[in-house]
Design a protein that fits this description.
The protein is mostly helical. It is 68% helix and 0% strand. α2 runs antiparallel to α3 and α2 packs antiparallel against α5. The chain is flat, with a radius of gyration of 23 Å. The relative contact order is 0.15.
């Protein structure tokens, strides 16, 4: 290969290895719209499931964020146990968030992901920017769990009625069971029992 060809070949290779930065494109699927997949489910069944799952998804993302915040801000005599418990629960919520988002995508929908969009959709109340007392933090988490569970029970019934067994199974087996277990663990920390008997 002649020197000019080698030089041209090297320049082309260099250009090909350079990332194409600052790209922009048009939106190819709007939030709330569905793509058609051969799933044996009607458009209306998939639309309902995506709407309900996106509500649970946005509330779960806020609950995850609350868990991380309260994990960082935990204090007092049970600091170590609660610090670890809240981090464990956050990890379980993160796994759940991924399952819910993937189900929405499987149904042909668009999973809510941008934190600003999540904040517009969620029904979980915003906590103060600062640090609350420990019982208040735990109560805040419990209230978010209950909000999600009320919605999940209704969504499970509605998705069963439309024949969306996959979404119904996800809601019952993962969303409801995970949130119920976590709520139980938190509630037991709010029982007014002295740490030491005298």
């Amino acid at each position: 290969m002649a020197a000019p060809q080698r030089q041209a070949h090297a320049e082309q290779a260099r250009r090909m290895s350079q990332p194409l930065l600052h790209q922009h494109g048009r939106e190819i699927q709007s939030f709330g719209a569905l793509r058609q997949f051969p799933l044996g489910l009607s458009h209306n069944a998939r639309l309902l499931s995506c709407e309900r799952l996106n509500q649970i998804l946005s509330d779960s993302q806020i609950l995850y964020a609350h868990y991380k915040k309260h994990h960082w801000l935990m204090r007092g005599p049970t600091f170590y146990q609660l610090h670890l418990l809240l981090d464990k629960h956050a990890g379980e919520q993160l796994k759940l968030i991924d399952l819910i988002a993937e189900r929405i995508q499987t149904l042909g929908g668009v999973a809510v992901g941008d934190p600003r969009h999540v904040a517009e959709i969620t029904r979980v109340p915003r906590p103060p920017n600062g640090c609350e007392e420990v019982p208040a933090m735990l109560s805040r988490l419990l209230e978010a769990h209950e909000l999600i569970l009320i919605d999940a029970h209704d969504a499970a019934r509605r998705t069963a009625d439309t024949g969306d067994d996959g979404t119904n199974d996800l809601i019952i087996s993962d969303v409801i069971r995970t949130n119920e277990m976590q709520a139980w663990f938190l509630a037991e920390h709010l029982v007014d029992t002295p740490l030491v008997r005298v």
